[in-house]
Design brief:
The protein is an all-alpha fold. Helix content is 71%, strand content 2%. The N and C termini lie far apart (73 Å).
């Protein structure tokens, strides 16, 4: 008898006789999205894997298909498989914020953010000037309670992005958590509080979203137990949220888009906590009943 033939490896010309490479990928992407809408995740994953395995694509299109594999795995809640695909992409583009943002989104879902700290540190040793890796390593150290390490990573990233408001915020936050540690002495605690709020002030000057800024400043003071200072900042956050537009217009005559979410509910809830701590339980119930409870 004839020996069994193995899987045929197609040439791109077999697929692109009528369609260009880009058109073929576009149709494949649309098909996969339709399969995902029908919750046929296994079939959509299999389709992309077969196309990657048996059809040699140009590098950019191959990268697009690999990202499509991540999307399928993510939407099917197979986060470990998605992370396995994203990691090689991170090695190929270690300076890309888009790729590392995707990595972070998947990594958070796996619940292994702190365990992946070693992976990030190995990459940082290989790419010591990659700000995205510095920031993610700082986040991982932060979540594992290593505030000094987180502060060091954020400080390094700040050298490359000195005007990024969130780096100042993360620095202030990591220092503030050091303030709350029992082993921090009184003298050191005072110095750290001043340092934290110096960074928060830099964040406030660069972040043009008043409700978020006032909320975060109030939350920092709230964490320190300075309720009399936190309360007016929460109220300013609520006033700023009330004045913010509910929709955003990209350009004259352009489509409307929903405005970024405000900190209204968080500010109201924390206001209720402060009133309850002060013995004003009726006021706390009033705030919760009229603004929080559904």
């Amino acid at each position: 008898g004839q020996p069994a033939e193995g899987p045929r490896r197609y040439h791109r010309e077999d697929v692109t006789t009528v369609l260009s490479d880009a058109e073929a990928v576009r149709i494949l992407t649309q098909t996969v999205h339709m399969l995902m809408e029908l919750r046929l995740y296994r079939e959509s994953s299999r389709l992309v894997q077969l196309c990657l395995r048996f059809i040699p694509w140009p590098k950019p299109l191959e990268a697009s298909l690999r990202l499509l594999t991540v999307a399928v795995a993510f939407n099917s809640a197979n986060y470990v498989a998605a992370l396995d695909v994203v990691r090689p992409l991170c090695l190929e583009k270690p300076y890309s914020f888009a790729v590392w943002s995707l990595y972070n989104r998947v990594d958070v879902k796996t619940g292994s953010t702190t365990r992946n700290y070693k992976f990030l540190m190995r990459l940082l040793a290989a790419y010591p000037h990659s700000a995205p890796i510095m920031i993610l390593a700082g986040n991982s150290a932060f979540l594992s309670g290593q505030m000094a390490a987180a502060q060091a990573e954020y400080t390094q990233a700040l050298r490359y992005y000195p005007n990024d408001p969130f780096l100042y915020f993360l620095l202030g936050l990591s220092i503030l958590h050091r303030v709350m540690l029992k082993r921090t002495s009184g003298t050191e605690r005072h110095a750290l509080v001043l340092m934290a709020f110096a960074f928060f002030q830099q964040y406030a000057q660069r972040r043009h979203k008043p409700d978020e800024v006032f909320y975060n400043l109030g939350r920092a003071l709230h964490q320190l137990g300075l309720f009399h200072l936190a309360l007016p900042l929460y109220e300013r956050s609520l006033r700023a949220a009330a004045q913010a537009p509910s929709v955003l217009r990209a350009a004259p005559g352009g489509p409307e888009a929903a405005a970024p979410p405000s900190m209204r509910l968080e500010a109201q809830y924390n206001l209720a906590l402060i009133h309850r701590e002060g013995g004003e339980r009726a006021m706390a119930r009033h705030i919760l009943w009229n603004n929080i409870l559904v």
